[in-house]
Amino acid sequence: MAFSQRTTLISHHRTHSREKPYQCCQCDQAFSLTISIIYHMRTHTGEKPYQCRQCEKAFLQNSDLIKHMRIHTREKTCQYNLCDKAFSMNCYLIKHLRTHTGEKTYQCRQCDKAFSLKTYLISHHRTHTRQKPYQCYQCDQAFSQNNSLIKHMRTYTGRNHFNAAYVSRLSQRTVIL
């Protein structure tokens, strides 16, 4: 392998030596690249310099903004040829592939069940912990599933449709697995 700049060679060498000379002054994390510590420091400062002009959502890295923009442009660069489906992000394609393969990569540590999506495993895990992170803001009832809270909220409003993200923000307590 040949490198045109000495700094690139040094950075490459660190991938093998696992040397991490850039230490965060606010936590114990260390990094091998200067750019990595710059991105990391933004998690402490809350800085998100890359902002979407269409919805004002902001991101730590430009690459995340570029991926996000596909939502607005409806650009679908990840194609699956066997069923002619296309997706805006590779992670969505991977999830879709599991519907064809039946692959269940997320294994429960407390029983023999496995799931194709991490969100399904998290939801299942609550059957073991009896954790109920979705709390009704009208009464003291709590639920293990977001959709159960939405059904419950209909008793107050009579509405059939709720924005699930809104309900989640109103009700969800911290979930620790």
UniProtKB/TrEMBL annotation:
Which Gene3D superfamilies is this protein grouped with? Classic Zinc Finger (3.30.160.60)
User: Single Gene Ontology BP term?
Assistant: regulation of transcription by RNA polymerase II
Q: Which UniProt keywords apply?
A: Metal-binding, Nucleus, Repeat, Zinc, Zinc-finger
- Establish whether keyword Ligase is in the entry: no
Q: Which Pfam families match?
A: zf-C2H2 (PF00096)
InterPro entries in the cross-refs: Znf_C2H2_sf, Znf_C2H2_type
The record's subcellular location field reads: Nucleus
Q: One GO CC term of this entry?
A: nucleus
tRNA processing found in the keyword field: no
Every copy of the C2H2-type domain together lies at 1-21, 22-49, 50-77, 76-105, 106-133, 134-161
Q: Which GO terms describe its molecular function?
A: DNA-binding transcription factor activity; RNA polymerase II cis-regulatory region sequence-specific DNA binding; zinc ion binding
Which family does the record claim for this protein?
A: Belongs to the krueppel C2H2-type zinc-finger protein family.
According to UniProt, the name of this protein is: C2H2-type domain-containing protein
